[in-house]
Design a protein that fits this description.
Blueprint (H helix, E strand, L loop, with lengths): L14 H22 L7 E5 L4 E5 L2 H11 L2 E6 L4 E9 L12 E9 L6 H5 L4
Parallel strand pairs: 2-5
Antiparallel strand pairs: 1-2, 3-4, 4-5
């Protein structure tokens, strides 16, 4: 009996297509922040990629607000420097999923290991 393996085809985007995807994701992120009144300050760095938006914040309350409004799950990574990276995996908001699909958002905050966080944040840590 023979089996056939289906190898997923990787789509290679042109430079213009990659740029357009990053701009679309950046716009979806900005629209979500504006529509829901989510934090947008100088303490937040945002980098849109072709398939997600990466956010780094200096305040755990930013992560808490995104969790409250958009939901999602949280992962933690302990660094050897005595710090823990808390990352919320969520998505942008949309009222038209066909025209404006949801975009994954990964929002990270670094805290000292053992730092207390809100119960809602600790409870959302993926098992």
């Amino acid at each position: 009996m023979s089996t056939s393996l289906q190898i997923p085809q990787v789509q290679h985007l042109s430079v213009l297509d990659r740029h357009a995807a990053r701009e679309r994701n950046e716009l979806n992120y900005a629209s979500t922040v504006t529509y829901h009144g989510l934090p947008d300050s100088r303490h937040i760095a945002v980098q849109a990629t072709e398939d997600a938006v990466l956010v780094t914040a200096t305040d755990i309350d930013v992560l808490g607000e995104w969790l409250y409004v958009q939901g999602g799950s949280i992962t933690t990574v302990n660094l050897p420097s005595g710090q823990t990276v808390w990352t919320l995996h969520t998505k942008t908001w949309t009222d038209s999923p066909v025209k404006f699909p949801e975009v994954p958002v990964h929002l990270s905050v670094v805290l000292p290991t053992g730092e207390q966080v809100m119960h809602e944040i600790a409870s959302a840590v993926a098992a």
